[in-house]
Amino acid sequence: MTDLDTPPVAAMSTTATPARPSTHRVFLAILRRDLLVTAKELWVILVQVGLTPLFMLFVFVKVLGGQGIVARNFADLFLPGIIALAALTTALQSVALPLVKEFGFTREIEDRLLAPLSTNLVAVGKLVVAMLRGLIAAALIYPLGALMVGSAPWQPGRLPMVLLTVLLGGWIGGGIGMTLAMILPIQRINITFSLVVTPIIWTGCIHYPWPRLSSMPWFQTVTALNPMTYVSEGVRGAMLPDVAHIPAWVCLLVLTGVAALVTVTSVRSFSRRAVQ
Amino acid sequence: MASSGGSPPAVEVTDLVKRYPGCTTAAVDGLSFTVAPGEIFGLLGPNGAGKSTTIGILTTRLRASAGRALVGGIDVVGDPVAARAQLAVVPQHNNLDRSLTPRQNLLYHAAYHGVGRAVRNARADALLDRFGLTDRADKRIEAYSGGMVQRLMIARALIHEPAVLFLDEPTNGLDPQSRRLIWSRIREMRGRGVTVVLTTHQMNAAAALVDRVGIVDHGRLLTLDTPGNLVKGLAGRSILDLTVTPAALDEPDELLRALSEVSGVRKSERLAAAAPPGAVAAKLRSGLGLGGGSGFGAGAPAALTALTALARERAVATLAPDPGGRERVRIRLHLAADPAAVLGPALTVLTTRLATLTDVHIAEPSLEDVFIGLTGRDPR
User: Fold this and answer.
1) DSSP designation for A83
2) Which are the contacts of B246, defined by CB distance < 8 A and separation ≥ 6?
3) Bridge partners of B168?
4) Residues B313-354: pLDDT tens digits?
5) CA-based nearest distance A23→chain B, Å
6) Concatenated DSSP letters for B292-310?
């Protein structure tokens, strides 16, 4: 225990009116906190997002492919879908679960909400970090997946398109995750996650190129409503230009539109929850 | 300290109203008060009175339904971002960042408020030392005790040197050591010119610390003044408890009547419970709480001390005739005058009637009595 009667902290001067710090400085400080936490949790991201896609790859490509149940070249079709899936779902989970905790149980978000920064920008910071985590996940999955299947398509010239699509996918995942975490009561989070994430995975053209669904028009329509489809198709189209795919410009257009929409819904729901 | 002395108030609340959705009554219902720069202001009230809601609005975490609230001259509704640069808050619950170490909690909080790296490092070191946390600065937050959490939260609130510090029940559930440390740190803030708005249920500590007190209930301000003035408002509300053994031929009711005729006695009554055993000589506890004194008041007037000696003398004098197994009687005198002025004449009555005095207890009104008087005795 410190002595009670020692004089006040020397470093502290008599308080004048505190100056308001610049917006970008505060924004970067909050971003830096999330990046520090992300760096601490890198292995968590890997486990969280890596296991399912890698097992999927293993079963579909190694097990089923090895037995001739699925074609050999399925691996090439599947790997871009797995990368897209990792980007979107990692971003979704990495923003939704911590936010449920930070707003609900620990309220540790309060310190950042009380920073001299618009609450909307605190939410945007979360989306930026979610997007970066999605990118990290995608970047980790690519070499791991390539190692597992033994080969991987590589189109250096198309890398910007892959990056752009993955970033948009991460942003959208973050937006969906934040919206869900902010509007759902805590006790319904788990069930809703299953209800939302499972269809995103299975109607998102991860395993198959969208144009090939023309034999099942109703399912093709359903998949066209899932933003995941455009992430998968964007990445696949860039990595495998010879495989029939949704044109890149359509993917980018749809993804940009969806990204704008989820930005509005997520930031608004965040601010409503933050200041009641 | 209560007057602003020309400078604009640090906190200004005008007709503040907060209604939560789905609630028929307002949590804050037309609250108005101002806090001068450098003042320590206590917001007291029963649970659910609207204190935390008021702090929530002032710290931009809750949106006011109506009215105006300024912190550091900035409208918290109109410009919450600028208002946040002026203030810091220590909430009732532990909201430390569990993903960071204690030291990082301080450093990142400072960074959120634009404090430069070198300055925030120096301040973090100084504050960790100041709050007795240096040894545990780099451990996990989960390993912190309640007192350490509270100290760290206060240190965190201070690191960006806010103009106004809000403390919501800062010593709730803490051991006496942590409580003393925290009260002493709050006292220091006055020296640094920090305005402090605090809520607490620890009336005695509050009375000793705050410049002014606002008592709220049902979202409304019931009274606002210095603790001294509030207690003074209850002047003439002192109580003199006497435990006596009447003389063999005296009737307790007669004795009671005789005492009630002493000048300065408003009302006299017999108390049901038996007197605490043991004390033959008179005891005096003054100054703390009508509901039960606890120790000697620091400023017991010299006159009272003299009277106690006198009481002791006379009590011994009246011990001469054996009480002969007569029952002790507890008598409570409600006073309209200073207890010191009543005690002498009351003793004279007892001596005249050969009653034996075994215990004297003087209770002066305290802030808690003011509080109970305004907000009632019923638990919320």
Assistant:
1) H
2) B252, B255, B326, B329, B353, B355
3) B199
4) 444 434 334 445 567 888 888 888 888 888 889 999 989 988
5) 9
6) ---S--TT--HHHHHHHHH
| Maximum pairwise Cα distance, chain A | 82
Q: Which residues of A touch B163 (CB under 8 A)?
A: 15-18
Tokens, residue A63: 């097990």
Q: Which residue of B has its CA nearest to A107?
A: B95
ipTM of the predicted structure? 0.85
Nearest chain B residue (CA) to A103: B95
Interface test with A, best of B89, B109, B112 (most A CBs within 10 A): B112
**Calpha distance B361→B314 (Å, rounded):** 16
CB contact under 8 A, A275 and B62: yes
Q: Which is more confident, B3 or A63?
A: A63
Per domain, the residue ranges of chain A are: 23-202+210-274
Write out chain A residues lying below 8 Å of B23, CB-based: none
Please count the residues of chain A. Answer: 276
Domain B11-232 has CATH 3.40.50.300: yes
Residue positions counted in chain B: 380
3-class SS shares of chain A: helix, strand, coil, % to 5: 75, 0, 25
Over the stretch B190-208, which tens digit does the pLDDT of each residue have? 888 899 999 988 888 888 8
Domain boundaries, chain B: 11-232, 239-364
**Which residues of chain A are at the B interface, by a Cβ-Cβ cutoff of 8 Å?**
1-2, 4-5, 8-22, 25-26, 29-30, 32-33, 36-37, 40, 106-108, 110-119, 274-276
Residues of B in contact with A37 (CB under 8 A): 99-100
Quote the tokens at residue A95.
């923003």
**Closest CA in chain A for residue B106:** A111
Reduce the DSSP state of residue B159 to 3 states and report it. Answer: coil
Are B151 and B131 spatial neighbours (Cβ–Cβ below 8 Å)?
yes
Q: Letter for the amino acid at A141?
A: I
